[in-house]
Design brief:
Layout (H helix, E strand, L loop, with lengths): L10 H12 L49 E3 L1 E2 L19 E5 L4 E6 L3 E6 L4 E6 L6 E4 L5 E6 L3 E6 L5 E6 L2 E8 L5 E6 L3 E6 L5 E7 L7 E6 L3 E6 L3 E6 L22 E7 L10 E7 L5 E4 L2 E6 L10 E6 L6 E4 L5 E6 L3 E6 L2 E6 L6 E4 L8 E3 L3 E5 L3 E6 L2
Antiparallel strand pairs: 1-11, 2-7, 3-30, 4-5, 5-6, 6-7, 8-9, 9-10, 10-11, 12-13, 13-14, 14-15, 16-17, 17-18, 18-19, 20-21, 21-22, 22-23, 24-25, 25-26, 26-27, 28-29, 29-30
Length: 401
């Protein structure tokens, strides 16, 4: 594990780089897939769902308008039941319950004790559905490429992944929308604790991790600095952990300088105090010399993430792990198709792998296939007894293996 130092760039420069990055294809999360299967390393989001003959289109209505104005948005039921009548079956997962069918661009997912919350990038909606089944509820409409979603006891939070993106929240049952941040470029993943909401930005030249207090007493602050995009993050009681596609500094900027520098520059998994580390004396690079790390999960003292196969490729095809206190990083599952979302409980890790969903014990062993024939499986979450994930067209739940 290595330390890094900060190379500062004036805020105006990083802001300009962020705008330029938003126009580049390297971080275009709304890029259309021409094959129906999206390469997760391109950060592209399919605007055309892959063919799925068993899916049906869910419909809904709304009486509300643009979230960026802070207007009221009521909870509106879809006209279709969440599992259909009779219930929809998924041919690739006989054990699954199809909670939602007919999405157009499913992406983010979060759970509380009673509901799954999710985003549909193509429809521009934030929605929820009861884990026990029932009609989906549309919480927010007219969003610009809504990406990730998180929940706490009172609110649902989400990011809009665009150059002029934003971070928002509203009461779980609907109501006024609070604008938490509307100037950080390409906000992506987010989490929330008892006092703050944290999110990543994925803009070349201005990537990082930001946070804002839930009381909205202060403006948002950047606590992790990176030149390239920060893909995902998790937190515990004292620290934030993030996967960063971070090269050595080029053309100025703020970034991680690895000691000694990696050639060519590659991604890192980094640990920073929750409040940030202005003096850079309490920040640790937990893993380096890795290619483009993506989805991240934490269980106990271990981190797990989807990763590429080396400095020459950002194609995620492995699941890796590192002990936070001891290291080093190790490969748990190689030869994967295109792993993306990662989740973990006390015993196992779970990940989406393009058209499949897989699991394996944290102690090691052969991965178990939980579902096949999935249409671009993306985010994944675990409850007490179930695994829940989202694809381009569905939200599905099944018992843990």
């Amino acid at each position: 594990m290595s330390r890094y130092v900060r190379v500062p760039t004036p805020r105006a420069v990083t802001a300009a780089l962020a705008v330029l990055a938003a126009c580049s294809s390297s971080s275009g999360d709304s890029t259309t897939s021409t094959t129906g299967t999206t390469d997760p390393t391109s950060t592209a989001d399919p605007t055309t769902a892959p063919s799925d003959t068993s899916s049906s289109t869910a419909s809904g209505s709304s009486s509300t308008t643009d979230a960026t104005t802070g207007t009221t948005m009521g909870s509106v039921d879809s006209t279709d039941g969440s599992t259909g009548d009779p219930p929809v079956a998924d041919p690739g997962c006989p054990e699954c319950t199809v909670l939602v069918d007919g999405l157009e661009g499913g992406r983010g997912l979060a759970l509380d004790a009673t509901h799954a919350y999710y985003t549909d990038q193509n429809r521009g909606t934030v929605e929820r559905v009861a884990l026990a089944g029932g009609a989906p509820e549309i919480l927010a409409v007219d969003q610009v490429t809504p990406y990730d979603v998180a929940v706490d006891g009172a609110h649902v939070y989400w990011t809009n992944f665009s150059a002029a993106g934003g971070v928002y929240r509203m009461a779980k049952g609907g109501g006024e929308i609070d604008v938490l941040d509307d100037y950080s470029s390409l906000p992506r993943s987010l989490v929330v604790d008892a006092t703050h909401v944290y999110w990543t930005t994925f803009a070349n030249g201005n990537g990082g991790v930001w946070r804002r207090d839930l009381a909205l007493a202060a403006t948002s602050e950047q606590i992790v600095f990176a030149i390239s995009g920060v893909a995902d993050l998790v937190i515990d009681a004292s620290r934030v952990y993030a996967t960063s596609h971070d090269p050595a500094p080029n053309g100025g900027g703020v970034g991680f300088i690895q000691e000694p520098p990696e050639e060519p520059a590659v991604g890192v998994v980094v640990s920073v105090p929750l409040a940030g580390d202005p003096d850079f004396d309490a920040t640790t690079i937990l893993a380096s010399g890795i290619a483009q790390p993506w989805g991240l999960a934490k269980a106990g003292d271990a981190l797990f993430w989807a990763n590429g196969d080396g400095a020459g490729s950002n194609d995620a095809n492995a699941v890796m792990s590192v002990d936070i206190d001891a290291g080093p990083a190790v490969v748990l599952a190689s030869g994967q198709n295109a792993p993306w979302g990662v989740a973990a409980d006390d015993a196992a890790i779970y990940w989406t792998d393009s058209t499949e969903v897989r699991a394996m014990p944290q102690a090691g062993g052969e991965p178990v296939v939980l579902a096949t024939m999935q249409a671009n499986a993306r985010s994944i979450a675990v409850g007490t007894d179930t695994v829940v994930w989202i694809t381009t067209v569905r939200v599905l739940s099944r018992p843990k293996p």
